[in-house]
């Protein structure tokens, strides 16, 4: 059983995780993270209220999730979901409440077989997973293990999260936590999320990651029972074999078990049988020396290859909450100087298609550059937005974070370039998620041109998070006449837009106060929580709006 006190402790860890790490790695951080941070105790009580009234609240105040298309390659897309903030916190609380049982059911982490999302809760930092087990650790372990075998099969599961079956997940949950109400509550929530379809998990959040690990644990156990040596990170498998024939047999076995038990299949284009030497040579984290075969172009290419491999294996993790954060930041900046980040960036931008993982790492490193080098890198990124299309969200996130560090002329140029790309109706910003991240950058540029552009976007685009952020930006800029006019259409707004407007209404002074009094009875428990926080924020005379 999970007691109320145990659930409350799980809720506190969930809140800490969300406020420190965000809700997904796909969408912009919702403004609701700020009241989550400021009112943790009240939010814990609210999540417990949702728990005690789960069946009633799921019907009366159902999740208002946001679905959007996100690029996974130059021509490939997937649907991603940003869960309603309060329901996302509730789902994560439920999963954390039984996470010890989930972890206990898996192959023990000490065996170094499964490297994805090993549960190690930290109530102080909100961390859910053991940082010693990661994609990098998975690749390094696979390289070491490959030295004992002649062949390696590298493969991954096709459409893992969208196709994961609810019945298998429910069975697994009942096996490990059937004495609690949480398997049923988790499944009721997922049924609501998937519109009663019997498959699919929301992509990008920790709750879904933990649940997916429990489901695929059956396949891990079947491979182990068949005495097949393998390693796995999420949906990526490495299988080790003595002969090519054995490698084929193991691949067939995995394919059969995935389909028979989970209704899943391997990605045809990504399934490869390699010699161990080839596997090590093509690994992005291999450490062996690069042989230089020529003095000129060959040496340059070999040097570039060595630098890119070194960067891929280099950790850019920085913890701003660390007691030694300033020293850690300075040390990281010094270490990054060993790489020619601007040179590596320009090298990638000469290609017709970038190496996605490497380019994302380069973009992350740009924030640690100094002065003109940083300015030049940012402008080069914007000039090549079509080449960086699959990872342009990462670029915009980085630009927003470092905007205040840019030179005055570069700031103006950044805004001009983004406005021009939007006005040209480029495919880059036909993706709403890209546009959302662009709005976060444009909030720094309060000009009449940008203001009019945002008004036009609000009328022409329908995605709730685009319109939500525009409401907040307009309030940030004290565009009170636009906010006042929007008040007349409050009841036609979506749930995320309504929550944003509750905060934005404080820019209307007395008009906003009278309006808030008139609609209080219409608000659900989460909206009342947001309104309470917004009032406290205003009374403390905090300037601006959190975006």
Automatic annotation (TrEMBL):
InterPro entries: GrpII_Intron_Splice-Mob/Def (IPR051083), RT_dom (IPR000477). It holds the Pfam family RVT_1. Residues 1-284 form the Reverse transcriptase domain. CDD domains: RT_Bac_retron_I (cd01646). PANTHER family: NUCLEAR INTRON MATURASE 1, MITOCHONDRIAL-RELATED (PTHR34047), PROTEIN YKFC (PTHR34047:SF8). Belongs to the bacterial reverse transcriptase family. This is Reverse transcriptase domain-containing protein. It comes from Siculibacillus lacustris. The lineage of its organism: Bacteria, Pseudomonadati, Pseudomonadota, Alphaproteobacteria, Hyphomicrobiales.
């Amino acid at each position: 059983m999970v007691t109320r006190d145990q659930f409350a402790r799980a809720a506190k860890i969930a809140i800490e995780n969300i406020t420190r790490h965000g809700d997904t790695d796909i969408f912009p951080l919702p403004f609701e993270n700020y009241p989550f941070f400021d009112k943790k105790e009240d939010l814990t009580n609210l999540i417990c209220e949702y728990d005690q009234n789960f069946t009633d609240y799921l019907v009366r105040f159902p999740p208002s999730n946001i679905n959007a298309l996100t690029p996974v390659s130059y021509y490939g897309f997937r649907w991603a979901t940003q869960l309603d903030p309060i329901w996302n916190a509730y789902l994560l609380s439920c999963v954390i409440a039984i996470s010890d049982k989930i972890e206990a059911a898996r192959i023990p982490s000490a065996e170094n077989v499964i490297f994805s999302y090993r549960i190690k809760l930290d109530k102080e930092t909100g961390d859910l997973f053991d940082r010693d087990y990661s994609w990098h650790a998975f690749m390094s372990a696979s390289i070491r293990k490959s030295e004992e075998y002649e062949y390696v099969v590298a493969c991954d599961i096709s459409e893992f999260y969208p196709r994961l079956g609810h019945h298998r997940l429910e069975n697994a949950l009942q096996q490990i936590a059937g004495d609690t109400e949480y398997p049923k509550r988790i499944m009721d929530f997922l049924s609501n999320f998937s519109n009663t379809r019997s498959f699919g998990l929301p992509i990008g959040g920790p709750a879904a990651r933990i649940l997916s690990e429990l489901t695929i644990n059956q396949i891990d156990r079947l491979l182990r029972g068949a005495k097949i040596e393998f390693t796995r990170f999420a949906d990526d498998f490495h299988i080790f074999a003595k002969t090519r024939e054995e490698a084929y047999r193991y691949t067939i076995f995995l394919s059969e078990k995935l389909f028979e038990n989970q209704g899943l299949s391997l990605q045809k284009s990504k399934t490869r049988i390699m010699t161990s030497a080839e596997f090590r040579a093509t690994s992005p984290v291999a450490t062996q020396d690069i042989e230089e075969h020529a003095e000129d172009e060959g040496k340059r290419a070999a040097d570039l290859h060595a630098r890119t491999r070194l960067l891929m294996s280099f950790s850019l993790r920085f913890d701003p909450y660390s007691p030694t954060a300033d020293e850690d930041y300075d040390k990281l900046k010094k270490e990054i100087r060993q790489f020619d980040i601007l040179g590596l960036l320009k090298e990638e931008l000469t290609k017709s298609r970038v190496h996605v993982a490497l380019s994302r790492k380069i973009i992350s490193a740009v924030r640690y550059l100094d002065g003109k080098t940083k300015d030049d890198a940012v402008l080069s990124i914007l000039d090549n937005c079509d080449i960086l299309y699959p990872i342009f969200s990462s670029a915009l996130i980085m630009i927003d974070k470092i905007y205040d560090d840019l030179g005055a002329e570069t700031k103006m140029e950044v805004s001009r370039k983004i406005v021009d790309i939007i006005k040209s109706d480029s495919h880059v910003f036909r993706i709403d998620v890209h546009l959302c991240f662009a709005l976060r950058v444009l909030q720094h540029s309060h000009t009449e041109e940008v203001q009019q552009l945002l008004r036009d976007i609000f009328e022409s685009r329908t995605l709730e998070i685009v319109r939500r952020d525009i409401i907040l930006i307009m309030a940030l800029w004290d565009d009170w006449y636009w906010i006042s006019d929007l008040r007349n259409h409050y009841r036609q707004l979506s749930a995320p837009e309504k929550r944003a407007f509750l905060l934005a209404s404080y820019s209307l002074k007395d008009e906003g106060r009278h309006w808030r009094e008139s609609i209080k009875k219409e608000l659900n428990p989460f909206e009342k929580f947001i309104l309470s926080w917004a009032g406290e924020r205003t009374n403390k005379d905090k300037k601006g709006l959190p975006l």
